[in-house]
Design a protein that fits this description.
The chain is α/β, with parallel strands linked by helices. The protein is about 50% helix and about 15% strand. It has three domains: about 180 residues, Rossmann fold; about 55 residues, Helicase, Ruva Protein, domain 3, CATH 1.10.8; about 70 residues, Arc Repressor Mutant, subunit A, CATH 1.10.10.10. It binds adenosine-5'-diphosphate.
Length: about 350
């Protein structure tokens, strides 16, 4: 039986804007690789690995996905077992606090099935060490009792595939990282790919969305499918309440303006970050901890969910002395860059 993942919403402030309830996320999640949009090079490499493993009659090698939230790591972890014709158990690194938390998953594995561990960088060292032998030798050594009565049981596991996902590949220890045979970084989606995702999902949900409206939604979705889905659902609600259910580009624009999603796709938290950096820290350089402290959010949230897009959009730069706002950030927020000299 597949185990339900323990998902955490990263920040209640942005939960409404950025995270869909699990059921909705699942209902829009592609069921097969052929339904996935973009990431073509990743898909091609995975298909080769899947085909080869199937020809050899072996489980697929362990796979690590990394990249910002909402780009498809969980989606890959659910479509790969489907392609392989096997089952998946889902766990979250934050929920695996002690080696015993790992045991039910490992002992439930069936031949060539998949264990998915989301946020694998959050697995503590003691649990990680169990993963080493599990991944390499399909074996775990359980220590029962303690002191003179302690004894070790060697437990054989059925050969399986571990799929790990992380937003922080750099936080993974080298021994764990090296045990993944396939490592894939998921990159941002192009405007056209996001338009396609919006149009396909509008179709699935039976929302009449035309190309110009899809373009408005895609444009404001920060190159991220999860945000595109979320924006689409909000535009649907807005259109049903204010425009007889008709989605036009101006309805989509008004709907997104209303929840503070601007033309670059930034939300309130992104603009709060820029405002803090530009106003309180005079444009920087400022350390991430200082910015996080001032905004009263965790630095992890800023590093995972806010900064990647601001960096990519050239609104901030990271220097050795800290983060700095760029000319483009001043132009975007309509304020004047302070003169330093
Ligand atoms: P992550 O695990 O990286 O945070 P998910 O895999 O949960 O992201 O993706 C979030 C949502 O975005 C999914 O439910 C799915 O609807 C959509 N999505 C992600 N990647 C794709 C893709 N390549 N094609 C279509 N939809 C996608």
């Amino acid at each position: 039986m597949a185990r339900e993942a323990v998902y955490q919403q990263s920040d209640p402030e942005t939960a409404q804007a950025d995270n869909l309830p699990r059921e909705q996320d699942n209902s829009l999640r592609p069921r097969a690789m052929a339904e996935m949009v973009g990431q073509q090079d990743v898909i091609e490499r995975l298909q080769i690995a899947i085909e080869a493993a199937q020809k050899r009659g072996e489980p697929l090698g362990h796979i690590l996905f990394d990249g910002p939230p909402g780009l498809g790591k969980t989606t890959f972890a659910t479509v790969i077992p489907t392609e392989m014709g096997t089952t998946v158990q889902m766990a979250n690194g934050a929920g695996l606090k002690a080696p015993k938390d790992l045991l039910p998953y490992l002992t439930n594995l069936s031949e060539a099935s998949v264990l998915f561990i989301d946020e694998i960088h959050r697995v503590p060292k003691a649990v990680e060490e169990y993963l080493y032998t599990a991944m390499e030798d399909f074996r775990i050594d359980i220590i029962l009792g303690d002191g003179v009565n302690a004894r070790t049981l060697n437990y054989e596991l059925r050969p399986f595939t571990l799929i790990g996902a992380t937003t922080r590949a750099g936080m993974l220890s080298a021994p764990l990282r090296d045990r993944f045979q396939i490592r894939e970084h998921l990159g941002w989606y192009s405007h056209n790919e996001l338009c396609e995702i919006v149009l396909r999902n509008a179709n699935k949900l039976d929302i009449p969305v035309d190309q110009p409206s899809a373009a408005v939604i895609a444009h404001r979705s920060r190159s991220t499918p999860r945000l595109a889905n979320n924006r689409l659902l909000w535009v649907r609600d807005y259109a049903q309440s204010k425009a007889d259910g008709k989605v036009t580009d101006s309805v989509a624009t008004a709907a997104l303006d209303m929840i503070g999603i601007d033309p670059l796709g930034l939300d309130k938290q992104d603009r709060g970050y820029l405002d803090t950096l530009m106003r309180i820290f005079a444009g920087g350089p400022a350390g991430i901890e200082a910015i996080a402290h001032t905004m009263n959010v965790s630095s992890d949230t800023l590093e995972d969910e806010v900064e990647p897009f601001l960096l990519r959009s050239e609104l901030i730069v990271r220097t050795r002395r800290g983060r700095m706002a760029t000319e483009k950030a001043y132009q975007h927020l309509g304020s004047v860059q302070p003169k330093l000299f």
